[in-house]
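Session log. Operator J.P. requested a structure for one protein chain; no other inputs attached. Running the standard single-chain path with token output.
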Amino acid sequence: MKKIIFLLSMSAMFMTVTACGNKSNTNAAEATAENTEVASDDSPAMKLLNSVPFTEEGLKSMIKTPEKEPLTPEEFEALYLAYSKVGINEKGQNLESNFVSKVISEVSRGRKRPEQTDAIFTKLLKNSSPSVRGVVVQQYGGLFGMSAETASKLVKALSAEKNAFVLKEGIKTLANQLKYDDVKQFVLGQIDNDNKEVRKAIALSVGNIWNKGIDGVNDAAKKLLADGDDDVRGTMLGYVGELEDESFIPDLVKVLDDPEQGKLHGDAMRSLYTMWYDYPKHKNTSKAAYEATVKYLKTTPRTRDIPAWETIGQLANRNERTYDAWKSQATYYNNAEFVKLMMDIAADPNANWLGRGPAVKVIAKIGTKADLEKLKGIVSANADDKDQKNVLNSIENALKK
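Structure written below.
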């Protein structure tokens, strides 16, 4: 549900030049912006924004700059000030549905940013609206990382921040940068924040391969694995495997051994698979994680909840470019054992149908046509299997390929 996320900015529309470490804008402009007061209702940009209706067409109408020309500083700033009219969903700490991003995307198409972009964003980081501050924080992310200078600048801007939306977005933007001490102190310093969305953002940062091995990260992961909120725990359970540390396996197994925590089983298994199968990279190898995976999938009697259906079909996918090299190192992996395990699950009428179908796909990927024919015979012979038709359809589809 979540992996990706970290190398991409939530809004790549107007990435700041500093996000890529490029300092094409003058230091003087940035220094001036550091002393700029919070944008008031009397600012030229706010006056421009308030001169049009707050509608999609209204925002577009305030842009007079022709295509292929730089937006004026007032136009550019007014576009981002438009977020001050957008509310924040307190439950998810996300902006309410709005059209501002769409307008910015359309306006920016074919038009350049003003030279003062860095100064404008620096100014808006002090804006009184948390919606504006949060969106501007997003602009500092980028595909190519972040310079230490830019990271420190962002940490400084966030040092006194109290709004959960802004903090969450700041942590997400800084998620890959815990190698910088000031970033690490800021991000991990929010680990006791009252807002669970902020703590979830920390879990995503901590369970991030870019931060593997950094002092303090594993301790933070341990704490988040014991968080009082299941959403936070689930996030950390699902990503702790990225740290490639087998000392976390007992924490994962403890959850898997508890049927009362069934809704977290998928998260725990995700990390186990990352540790030993690691699709699509196929770099990690862990015998202990493999054995814990097999143990869980063998759990009987099976029910609609255990094994969790989303934990079954991972081996239906593999990266052919890296798989053989991985398999030569993963000497613990027993293909025949895994095929048999998938056949047991696919044939078990007590198992959740949502998992039995993926089990058939795994057999088709790592087993043989003979295995599928054998499974077909077993399922066909069980007239009491209420999901028999669905499973047989899955087998037939697999046999046709």
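Operator note: The beta strands are 88-89, 94-95.
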